[in-house]
Fold:
Amino acid sequence: MKIIDIYIIKKFLTTFFFILGIIMLIACIFDYSEKMDDFTERGAPFIGLIVDYYFNFVLFYGNMFSPLLIFITVIFFTSKMASQTEIVAILSSGVSFKRMLFPYLICSIILASMSLMLNHYLIPNANKVRIKFEEDYFKMAYKNYDNDIHKQIGDNDFVYFEKYNVQSDIGYKFTLEHYKGREMIFKISSDYAQWDTTKECWVIHNYVKRFIDGDEERLERGRSLDTILELHPSEFEERLEYTTQMMSTPELNRYIDREILSGSENVTYHLIEKHQRTSVPFATFIMVFIGVCMSSRKVRGGIGAHLALGLLIAVTYIFAIKVATVYATNAGLSPFYACWIPNILYGIMSFYIYRIAPK
Structure:
């Protein structure tokens, strides 16, 4: 590795972490000013506020915006190098433009690898701590407002609640149906089912059992009955925007399998979260490539012109991600393609910019 490689890598990483630190400091200040009254009123501990909340806050949002910040970083320091004719000096010394991209590639691999590790394993665990702290000291307890809840809890078993109360763990108008093939052979209907924390089971009240054997049916009634189901009250407390954020990728894969089995309509959202954990870090390579090729030329307007054009490209990239996500959730586009199409399109753009870049 040559001195110029070390020079560029050092400028890249120091500039990125400096910009990241400034942005996250500003974000923490604005967040605290918004939530200060709630934190004070509810007695949030200072150590917990720093360690449990804001440390994980920085991890989550810093990683989320890292491709954009990396893009701005590359444009900023490369444009500055170009304005000081350092790029011209490097190319004039016999170093090819392709060779000059090598230290940028090294930094991209380092930052993309860090982001992949954070997305798939570390940030979900950090989110559990952050969201728990936020629930305790800022947000009110979650209430479930869903009606007509249908869930498949096994290969042949289906449950139904007309509505569910999260605070008391009671589901009203409870129904359990058991099928053999396409024929229902057993059904329980009750006024309500309540979770018993001591016995770790559901207790159904005022129930009617219906046994079906061909053309014969038999009814059985009772006041209460303990029932073990592959269903936990925590499943009703999950919110769509938080559920997948708190799961590592292996946990998320198992959760998606259960959601597919139960016929959940939210599978697409979970698949998008899964694929974006990989596609967004890979956008680092594309953003760096575009940033170098675009800002390596000395132009009138200097750094300001490069930053303005760079921000325009970043905004259109984010817009492309949102459009693809909407198509996936509403028009049936595969979540995998929805997450990778923006990368493919901007990857093609990066090669075009590379071809016209001064070498």
Remarks:
- The beta strands are 147-152, 157-165, 170-180, 183-196, 201-213, 216-227.
- Residues 3-139+266-356 form one domain.
- Residues 80 and 86 are 9 Å apart (CA to CA).
